[in-house]
Amino acid sequence: MVAPLRVGIAGLGTVGVEVVRLIERQGRVLTERTGRPVKVVAVTARSKAKKRGIDLSGITWAKDALALASDPEVDCLVELMGGAGDPALSAIDTALKAGKSVVTANKALIAKHGLKLAKAAEKHGGALNFEAAVCAAIPVIKTLREGLAGTGISRVYGILNGTCNYILTRMEQEGLSFDECLKDAQRLGYAEADPSFDIHGHDTAQKLAILASLAFGTQVAEKSIYVEGISSIAPEDLKAAAELGYRVKLLGVAVRTAKGIEQRVHPTMVPKSSSIAQVMGVTNAVTIDGEGIPPITLVGPGAGGAATASAVVADIADVARGIRAAPFGRPVDKLRATEKAPMERHEGGYYIRLMARDHAGTAATIATRLAEQKISIESIVQRHPNGSEPPKTAGKSAPVPVILITYATHEDAVHRALQAVQRDKVISGKPQVIRIEKN
Ligand SMILES: NC(=O)C1=CN([C@@H]2O[C@H](COP(=O)(O)OP(=O)(O)OC[C@H]3O[C@@H](n4cnc5c(N)ncnc54)[C@H](OP(=O)(O)O)[C@@H]3O)[C@@H](O)[C@H]2O)C=CC1
Ligand SMILES: N[C@@H](CCO)C(=O)O
After folding, report:
1. Is 259 assigned a catalytic role?
2. Which of 100, 112, 142, 207 is an active site residue?
3. Phi and psi dihedrals of 214, rounded to 5?
4. Does the record's keyword annotation contain Membrane (predicted)?
């Protein structure tokens, strides 16, 4: 009889509880597939008293994550507490230095400390697996690290955050407010403990940093990523996008350019007919452009307890099988420093929504400022609400929305043109700018 893989789980929240359930439910299948039983022997969380709806009888309760990591009865530490620092960091470091394997879903920690931890794993012989950290159930880490080990990669991009896609979908389809949708995402267990990581784009950036490292053989560099979240997206942007044949998605994009690797996270207008536009709700999608082959797109549930547990348990199964892949696809000292392509030189089309003063010559002034920066306008729409005359405030007409779509131009040209428009005082408030990605 082969000795079981003895698993210790730190964190029994949305994901941890589902991992315990899945190992219990799939016990026989896991043994058949890995050649070895997988057994949860110890757990910990903040509160021992909390009711969790799982049977923990016969399982040791460790006093804290560090005690769990150093417990000689545990072969594999599964870290599901979250957070880029302690106790997750010390617990993982301790387990790896003791030669144990570690499985984690913690992208914040891997994006920040992944290289140091991967070095410890290399040195002490344990595995460091984090499939669940990016797009939950979608096996995108394995695809980049193993499935495409022989293929050069020029671009990896997609919808990497379930919470944001869920919010944008429900705002567009049901006309709900941002706050209502966020509350539902939290209730369903999609959002991070601090949901600002989701809505301000940092969760996507952490995932993109991990994918870029695997795709391009570079060091994980979250700080090289340009990040914008979805909190400024208003219902009128979603409506205008729909009318113009687009949908708004929060995309993470890492692309090899002549000037280095461009890495960016921002709301993006994608054509309604594109496959990425069809990805709705908590679903994620990642497209990988491999050299010499057509793009590969992986689509699946990107958040939630059961979806995430699926990837965590697959990682545990690899540990049980004795697989020890280099966490970032190659030894850490072979990963190159990231050459960052400047965002100001990003090239693409832009959606611009301005609140323009409603008097003669405003549209001409805006068009002139754009022309000065050699920006060509694909379409311009100036409208009064419901097609009526603009409302009057204190004898003056209230500002009216002007929506412009530009042909491909550079980021810095757009900034210069809009600064000039603001100096001209023909608009009120801050212009709304959304990048357009046509393919
Ligand atoms: N939810 C999701 O859809 C996904 C989550 N992830 C990642 O998985 C990880 C866990 O997420 P999730 O399950 O949603 O988070 P939860 O907030 O639901 O659960 C966190 C768990 O960790 C425990 N915990 C927190 N701090 C400590 C501590 N200091 N010491 C011991 N235990 C602690 C909590 O204990 P207690 O219950 O007692 O409070 C809780 O059981 C995170 O890294 C997250 O980014 C990844 C992919 C998807
Ligand atoms: N909060 C994350 C969880 C999955 O990583 C999301 O919504 O995508």
Report:
1. no
2. 207
3. -65, -40
4. no
Tokens representing 302 are 């990107």
Closest by Cα among 179, 176, 129, 149 to 312: 129
Residue 394 reports pLDDT greater than 70: no
- Asked whether the beta carbons of 273 and 255 are under 8 A apart, the reply is no
Closest ligand 2 atom, residue 303 Cα: 4
Q: By percentage, how much of the chain surpasses pLDDT 70?
A: 97
Q: Which residues pair with 263 in a beta bridge?
A: 254
Measured from the Cα of 195, ligand 2's closest atom is 1
Residue 250 Cα distances to 164, 189, 267, angstroms? 7, 19, 4
Spelled out in words, what is the top-level CATH class assigned to the domain 5-136+325-333?
Answer: alpha beta
Whether residue 396 has pLDDT greater than 90 = no
Best mutation site among 138, 308, 313 for ligand 1, i.e. most ligand atoms within 8 A of its Cβ? 308
Cβ of 91 less than 6 Å from ligand 1: no
ipTM: 0.99
**Ligand 1, atom 15, residue with closest C-alpha:** 13
Instruction: Identify which of 169, 171, 176 has the alpha carbon closest to the alpha carbon of residue 302.
Output: 169
How remote is the CA of residue 215 from the centroid of ligand 2, in Å?
21
Q: Which CATH architecture has domain 145-301?
A: 2-Layer Sandwich (3.30)
What's the whole-model pTM score?
Answer: 0.95
Residue 37 alpha carbon to ligand 1 centre in Å: 25
Is the pLDDT assigned to residue 97 strictly greater than 80? yes
> Which fold, 344-436?
Alpha-Beta Plaits (3.30.70)
